[in-house]
Amino acid sequence: MSRKAVRVISVIAGVLLIAAGIYCIIREDVALMTGALMLGLSMLLSGVLELVIFAKAGGAMLGSGWLLLDGLLTVILSLFMLFNGLFTLLYMPFLFSAWLMFSGIFRIVSAVDMKAFGAKYWWVTLIFAVVLTAVGFIGFMDPWVSLEAMSVTIGAVFMLEGLDSIIAGFNSLNRDI
Fold first, then answer.
1. 84: domain range?
2. Is residue 170 exposed (0-12), middle (13-18) or buried (19+ Cβ within 10 Å)?
3. Which tens digit of pLDDT belongs to each residue from 46-86?
4. pTM value?
5. 128/149 Cα distance (integer angstroms)
6. At what angle do helices 64-83 and 85-116 cross, to 10 degrees?
7. Nearest-CA neighbor of 47 among 65, 73, 66?
8. How many domains does the chain have?
């Protein structure tokens, strides 16, 4: 396949992703079914990567036990989501909220570690971590808000990925000129 064809396909894929994102925002049910698979796969990948990082550099990191725990819980939760559709649909708002809270708490610990190492912008990580934890907590208080947030998030991710694909396609087209 020629380079130009790949670039055109990239732009077309981007447009289709944007359309899928808009559709997911409009139709929550589609977003949740798609989101369960996407969330399960991305959580599995994230958990496995955290376990690999722990195995390779766990002894050299402060708070590496948190990384191990986060990796294990993320892998276990992702397997539930991928292999038990009914479980996922019934408990997705709670799973999503729990994951947000745990990830937020993990990032708070990471921000404190970053401060101990003298990182300049540790406070940015801390702010995002507190917001992430608060959003997870709010999701537990009202699971339907969590469902709405997931639908919008999934749609937004599709649209951003589509925009990125379109930009990459146009950038690569302009390089040859």
1. 3-175
2. middle
3. 888 878 877 876 666 556 677 788 788 888 888 877 887 66
4. 0.51
5. 17
6. 170
7. 73
8. 1
